[in-house]
Amino acid sequence: MTGERTLEPGRAAGDIYRTLGVEPIVNGRSTFTILGGSLMAPSVLAAMAEAAEAFVDLTELQAAVGRRIAELTHNEAAFVSGGAAAGLFLSAAASIARGVPDGVAPLDRTGLPTEFIIHRAHRIPYDLAIGLAGGTLVEIGTDVATDQAELEAAFTARTAGVLYVPKAHLAPAVVPLEVVCHVAHQRGIPVIVDAAAQLPPRENLWRFTEAGADAVLFSGGKALCGPASTGLVLGSARFIERLAVNAAPLQRLGRPMKVGKEDLVGILAAVEWYLELDEEALIRRYEEQVAHLVDWGRERDDVDVVRVDMGEAGQPTPRALVLLSGRDGYERDAFLARLRAAPPRIDLLAGDENTFYVAPETLRPGDERIVSDRLGQLLAELAQPAEPAREQSTV
Ligand SMILES: *Cc1c(COP(=O)(O)O)cnc(C)c1O
Questions:
Q1: How far is the CA of 392 from the centre of ligand 1 (A)?
Q2: Protein residue with its CA nearest to atom 12 in ligand 1
Q3: N or C terminus: which one in the chain shows less Cβ crowding within 10 Å?
Q4: Pocket flag, ligand 1, residue 124 (CB < 6 Å)
């Protein structure tokens, strides 16, 4: 996702990085934190600059921003965390401290419930945040499926919560969220939904809480085009209250994941921007960028380019899938490494075998041409007899 913006005369996008000797990247991978997440919308930047002009009571601001975001997203309550992963940590801490009278998670979890039930198909690298909060994961099901009996049998006196990752493309045959919430709530156990990258559609901002989830996490720095160091926790007033007592600015376990005043108003501006965004027009722009790449591929016999109708995290957005005909996965990796090595540095996501994806959501308007031109150049170099010395220095 990218916003439109203007630079001062004589300055090009990314010059501020070049000054440091860090060559910027054309991002065709998607909203990956490692590449900077997304480009903040101009209204977000303006709000942040304005927030930098005055001091404020951070607790009051957190509460006010939370109330406003809850209203906008049709949720009972909301909390701004230092990223979706921090939201996962805070949700886990709040779940573990459920039986503690003041709700504050202690460093010593002896005697507290610490187990989180998760469908095996929902394991993600970010679930480390549960461990950081002192929790452990109890897997149910297989890589592709789970049934309700298995879910019901997994609850014990040590259960603190259930973690659910709504990526239908990962595992269509898991227990539906509504059922998971029903089963967990019968036992007084909260359900945490990690929906960090599940936008668009915007309805997801309320759909998972409507299904019964106690806390739903979104990244501020992905489709919302807010500060990369923010995330949303949307959910029930009761759960969010218990989460907030474990979070910064209080001197509690969540203190290392603080969110500043500029970030707080920045993510609010981002939510406002996103809710007013014409999602259909945005997806039309994606379609045009993908169509450009498909058309480009049609002219060539060394690649096949097709449109696929699912984003990297399973979102209903298109991508281009490029197949390097006659080459294997090893050559594909070397090709992608070369694409990333020299300006215009382009980062793309490898697919199966000899394929890779071009994701439009992080391409700025016109980047699709930079990508196709550069792909064409590298393919032409590849078709020439190898020059050993040059190969070594560029791969
Ligand atoms: C991106 C992502 C996260 C981490 O989000 P941050 O806002 O970068 O902390 C967590 N879970 C899932 C499923 C994600 O895709």
A1: 36
A2: 196
A3: C
A4: yes
What pTM did the predictor assign?
0.94
Q: Per-residue confidence at 390, pLDDT binned at 50, 70, 90?
A: low
* DSSP H or E stretch at residue 347: strand 346-347
Query: Which CATH topology does 15-30+278-382 take?
Result: Aspartate Aminotransferase, domain 1 (3.90.1150)
Closest C-alpha residue for ligand 1 atom 5: 84
**Domain residue ranges in the chain:** 15-30+278-382, 42-276
d(C-alpha 264, C-alpha 230), whole Å: 8
Nearby residues of 249 by Cβ (< 8 Å), 6 or more positions away: 58, 59, 62, 255, 258
Distance 217 CA to ligand 1 centre (A): 8
Taking only the tens place, the pLDDT of each residue in 95-129 is 999 999 999 999 999 999 999 999 999 999 999 99
Separation CA 127–CA 176 (nearest Å): 20
User: Rounded to the nearest whole angstrom, what is the distance from the C-alpha of residue 159 to the centroid of ligand 1?
Assistant: 24
For the chain, the residue count is 395
381 Cα: distance to centroid of ligand 1 (angstroms): 37
User: pLDDT tens digits for 324-368?
Assistant: 987 877 799 999 999 999 999 999 999 999 999 999 999 999 999
Assigned CATH topology for domain 42-276: Aspartate Aminotransferase; domain 2 (3.40.640)
Q: Are strands 115-119 and 159-164 parallel, antiparallel or unpaired?
A: parallel
pLDDT of 272: 98
263 lines ligand 1 (CB under 6 A): no
